[in-house]
Design a protein that fits this description.
- By secondary structure, the protein is mostly helical.
- It has one domain.
- It contains four helices and no strands.
- Helix 1 packs antiparallel against helix 4 and helix 3 runs antiparallel to helix 4.
- The radius of gyration is 17 Å and the shape is elongated.
């Protein structure tokens, strides 16, 4: 493989990571995009529980626990960005 092909593959991989991170605005979609269907569905289903827990606990923690859903969302975006792509298609970013 030539160096230009390696650079092109790295560029495509980086673009796919960025797309997965952007899709994770809705938790789980970035993981589904990268081929981790069950993990994505699980993260999507857990998201409302984290929001609910953060809001309920906010009453007891003077609002500090509202950071819990935000931390969860940041973790999901980071994990989607850094997770290896399982998809078989290696053409373009889709």
């Amino acid at each position: 493989m030539s160096t230009s092909e390696v650079r092109n593959n790295d560029k495509i991989r980086h673009e796919r990571d960025q797309v997965a991170a952007m899709q994770s605005i809705i938790p789980g979609l970035g993981h589904i995009y990268k081929g981790y269907i069950w993990k994505g569905i699980g993260l999507f289903l857990i998201a409302p529980a984290t929001i609910w827990a953060g809001l309920i606990a906010a009453w007891a923690t003077l609002g500090f626990s509202i950071l819990f859903p935000i931390v969860y969302w940041v973790f999901v975006v980071y994990d989607a960005y850094t997770t290896e792509d399982r998809r078989k298609s290696h053409v373009g970013i889709l």
